[in-house]
Write a structure and sequence with these properties.
four-stranded antiparallel sheet; about 210 residues; six-stranded mixed sheet; Rossmann fold; alpha/beta
């Protein structure tokens, strides 16, 4: 399965210049990709286009399965954001189980899935803690577990450690990269080269243009 953006241009009303300029990128299920660039370079917009949240002004975005067009990008992507969005008065387990419930499984199965993914990010012992009692790094790991529980093949992470200190960043990144395996692709937008170094591939973006990959 591949997620493809082909010659994508994005323009916003009131802005003279496009935010994305002919961006082409392909991500294959199972790989880890960093979108690296300075603030305002178009990283977040590129992720939003790949996730189907922003419709390109020109160009196309599609999901390919064995060369055939398949579901919409919104059907195969899930998000990890810099600003976490959790139910503060619910437990870590509840917050992750809600993603599994969208798959149509039983409540029991959803909570088993949630417990498994919380264990994968090192939070099994905190599964019954209310989200408001968790640290910033722990909450971000809950968000990672929730993304994994959704079983979507493409995980889009927009500056997932931007609000965290260095020590917490290392813990969160360890959890994220260890939890993602060949069943899902991880696409991380970041301005931090140390985050990008952990990915198998880096897509550089400057002023809305993708420059040669390495």
């Amino acid at each position: 399965m591949r997620l493809l953006a082909d010659a994508v241009e994005v323009r916003y009303r009131g802005l003279a210049d496009p935010v994305l300029r002919g961006a082409t990128v392909e991500v294959v299920r199972g790989e880890t990709v960093a979108v690296l660039g300075p603030s305002g370079s178009g990283k977040s917009t590129l992720l939003a286009v790949l996730g189907g949240l922003v419709r390109p002004t020109n160009g196309t975005v599609r999901v390919d399965i064995d060369g055939s067009a398949a579901p919409r990008p919104t059907d195969v992507t899930t998000w990890i954001l810099q600003t976490t969005n959790v139910f503060s008065e619910r437990t870590a387990l509840d917050n992750v189980a809600v993603a599994a419930l969208t798959l149509g499984v039983s409540v029991r199965e959803a909570y088993l899935v949630a417990a498994r993914h919380l264990a994968a990010v090192g939070l099994f012992g905190r599964r019954n803690s209310l989200a408001r009692h968790l640290s910033g790094g722990e909450v971000q790991r809950v968000v990672i577990a929730r993304a994994l529980a959704s079983r979507r093949p493409f995980i889009l992470a927009d500056e997932p450690t931007g609000q965290l200190d260095h020590a917490t960043t290392c813990v969160v990144l360890d959890a994220l990269f260890e939890a993602v395996d060949e069943s899902a692709a991880l696409i991380v937008a970041t301005h931090d080269p140390t985050v990008a170094e952990r990915c198998e591939r880096v897509v550089h973006i400057v002023d809305g243009r993708i420059v040669p990959e390495r």
